[in-house]
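User: Predict the structure for this protein chain, please.
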Amino acid sequence: MHLAVYQIILITIYSYISINDSFISNTLTQPAIAGMVSGLIMGDLELGLMVGGTLQLMRLGIAAFGGASVPDYFTGAVLGTVFAVLSGKGAEYGIGLAVPVSLLMLQLDVVARFSNVFLLHRVDKAIDEMKVNRIPRLVLSGSVLWGLSRAIPILLMLLAGDAVVTTVTDNMPEGLMNGLKTAGGVMPVVGIGILLRYLPTKQYIPFLLVGFFLAAYLQVPMLGVSIVGVVAAMLIFAKDKEKANASDAAQVTTNAGTFEGGIDGDE
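Assistant: Here is the predicted structure, written as structure tokens:
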């Protein structure tokens, strides 16, 4: 399979727009969305959802606090989906390639942020010199640089994609291929594990065990396990709300008794 010109254009434009959207809603850069859109453009929506959804699990426990750079799973999802479709080797292959791509793009993310810091200092200088007309142009330049930080690498990989992917897949050792597949299968578990560390897991271990039992031993589909989880959450919420209402009622009664006692004492 070969990339069509319109596919290259659409994916490049999508990557440019999406990375700028990360400063507004951070929706288009989610790996699941990136995989879905890339899969739709490539004509294999299911494969795109599989690659993007798996990378989304890896991203759950990672956040860029304080402007720190993290693996760029957005670019990994886009290129992983494209290469998975081109090679015809399935989602595991795409996920395995997406991981090193995400780590590589982390370095380019640092360069893009550094470039914008340079422009930010130019904005500060324009403010000090009262040259306010230059500020919108500098801000727009920062947005353009930020968009190109993803659009250019993705465009270059897409232009070289056919030859590169074919060469890599034909000459890739079987052991390395198996390693990429194994990494693609393990990484989602690592992402979930990191996420569980931030959640009050110890408090709800029984529900975690119930979900594991349903999925592993009874072979209940994920939708069924999710429904059981929603029902459990609703029951816990109702119980906590009932306790809160009872506590508020007891507090009101206590305050009323204290108030009446104070009046009687004054009399």
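The chain has two domains: 5-199, 206-266.
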